[in-house]
Amino acid sequence: MSMRSDRQRFWSDDLVGLTPYVPGEQPRIEGLIKLNTNENPFPPSSRVTEAIRAAADERLRLYPDPASQALRECLAGYHGVALDEVFVGNGSDEVLGFLFRALFQRGRPIVFPDITYSFYPVYCRLYGIESTIVPLDEALAVDVDAMCRIDPSSVGGVILPNPNAPTGRALGLEQVERLAAHFADCAVVIDEAYVDFGAESAVALVGRYPNLLVTQTLSKSRSLAGLRIGFAVGQSGLIEALTRVKDSFNSYPVDRLAEAGAIAAFEDRAHFERTRAAIIRMREELAAGLNARGFEVVPSAANFLLARHPDHAGADLAAGLRRHKVIVRHFDRPRIGDHLRITVGSEPENAALLTALDAILGAE
Ligand code: PMP
Q1: Both ends of the chain: CA-CA distance in Å?
Q2: Is the pTM of this model over 0.85?
Q3: CATH code at 339?
Q4: Which domain holds residue 38?
Q5: What is the per-residue pLDDT across 51-99, written as a single tens digit (0 to 9) for each?
Q6: Most buried among 3, 129, 285, 333, using CB within 10 Å?
Q7: Is 191's C-beta closer than 6 angstroms to any atom of ligand 1?
């Protein structure tokens, strides 16, 4: 048994050894400019709020559809796949939690980059799954060549975000395809939380690769982080594996209001196209503003930028910004400890960030 404190007396052994994921903070500070959790600065489509209001009636007495069929039909239509090739969950974090359980297992390490979504090592520890970590290359891009040098027979799965987080760098579809082909005997998961801001979706490849599973979320490009809807697309065998885990854990992860709102979000194509185009434009403007202040900015296909200033420690800049009521994400980790991850905010928020940086950099 592992060492435990008195308050941990009744905890399971696994839990004592666990370090949970730490989400970006959600402080309640008046006038705060919050550029730390990659939320979308635009409100969701008004059709979403109308649909949720319309669904908020006495039917809440009843359980939702355990299969979320209406939402899955909508997603299948959107992505041009069959109904049994779509799984939905309570945020893509839950979908990831299910797929680690469903597709990866103890005894065969899974492959992911050194700098990536920090939830992956947490799921590994939760489920007792080993990992093989492949460093990003010098330019902080996913090193597909290095991954493809790994003997696939020793590997239990592969997972990476595309675009990667927190770098924002995207791989082309041919690189994703190389991974799916090289690791043909295990599940290859592409976490496309940010794909709508500038990368190509690997959903186009799922018909050809029975091992490929793609996850997406409504939290970012649909402005619905508060609704908690994520989904996965893959061949029906992979989807059935996810459904088996769901039905062994929680049969109704997607509630009635969330399902209604999510469907409405996909029905308002114009809102989606307008807001994502604006975010892409504002990202490039913000990158130019950071460059002009001496920052090195990693090219991003996401709704955030990873940037470092050659003369200033990342932790100092993050603390300085906080004094100006601007919060960004700083990871106290090797290789990116001097970087800031800055969510693309609204135009006034991005301007306020640059003004605060001017004050901080000018004060030297
Ligand atoms: N994947 C990546 C790479 C992310 O950055 C996030 C957001 N923290 C998620 C998945 C999860 O998003 P959600 O649970 O809101 O769908």
Answers
A1: 52
A2: yes
A3: 3.90.1150.10
A4: 28-43+270-362
A5: 999 999 999 999 999 999 999 999 999 999 999 999 999 999 999 999 9
A6: 129
A7: yes
